Amino acid sequence: MRRGISYSHCGIFASYAEQGPIISWVADHRRHHAYADRGGDPHSPWRFGTSARALAKGFWHAHMGWLFQREQTNATRFAPDLLADPDIQRVNRWFPALTAVSLLAPAVAGGLITWSWWGALTAFFWAGLVRVAVLHHVTWSVNSICHMIGDRPFTARDKSANFWPLALLSMGESWHNSHHADPTCARHGVQRGQIDISARLIRIFEKLGWATKVRWPRPERLARRLKTAARTS
Length: 233
Ligand SMILES: [Zn+2]
Ligand SMILES: [Zn+2]
Hints:
The chain is an all-alpha fold. Helix content is 55%, strand content 0%. α1 (7-15) packs parallel to α6 (86-93) and α3 (52-68) crosses α8. The longest helix has 28 residues, at 117-144. It is globular and about 60 Å long. The chain starts with 6 loop residues before the first helix and ends in an 8-residue tail after the last helix. The chain binds zinc ion (ZN) (2 copies). The site of one zinc ion has 4 residues, from α2. It is a multi-pass membrane protein. Residues 21-188 form the Fatty acid desaturase domain.
C-alpha cells in the first residue's frame, strides 16, 4: 500500500508561504469558519458595522490589521488534533528556520545560476520578498474582498462571496462562497467555468497516490446548498 503525503509534509511546504506557524494558522482558520462574520471571527470586514466608515475600517482589519492587534486563538480548543501530533509540533517549531529557507533558497539559487552577488540579491528581492508580498496580499484579499464583494450562489451563514477576478491569482481560493458553503470539499470552483488550480493539483496528487480520502463535490450536496435565486451581492 502506498502512503499519502502526511500532514507534516504539507505543513513544511505550507510554512514556506510564511503565514505563521502551522498550528496557529489552522486554529485561526477554523475559528474563522466557526464564527465567520460574527463575533469571534478573527478577521471579518463586518466587525465594526455596515456604514461606509465602518466598512473601510473593517476592510483594513480583515486584510491585515488583525495580524497586528490580534488576540491569540486558543489552539487547545481549535486545533487539539494538531497539538497531539508530534510531527506537526516539530514543523510548528521549525517555522522560523523554514521561513529563512524560503527567503534564502532563491537567493542562493540566483547567486549560483548567475555566479554573482547581483544575481543573489535580485533573486532574493523578486523570488523572496516580492513573492511573499504578492502572495500575502492575495491571501489577505480572500479574507477582506471575498467577504465583501461578489456573487453568493450558495447558502452560507456568513458574507462570503465568489470574486472571479482573483480566481487565477488565488488558485481557486476566491470561490469563497462555495468554500464556506462546503468547507471540507477539495474543489472551491464548483460551478461551470470556475477555474480552480488548487483542485487540479489535489487531483494530480490523488492520482499519484499522495493524497487520499479527498472529498470532491457531490451534485446532491451542491444542489442542497444552492440558492434558488442565484445571486446577491
Ligand atoms: Zn477556509
Ligand atoms: Zn472566509
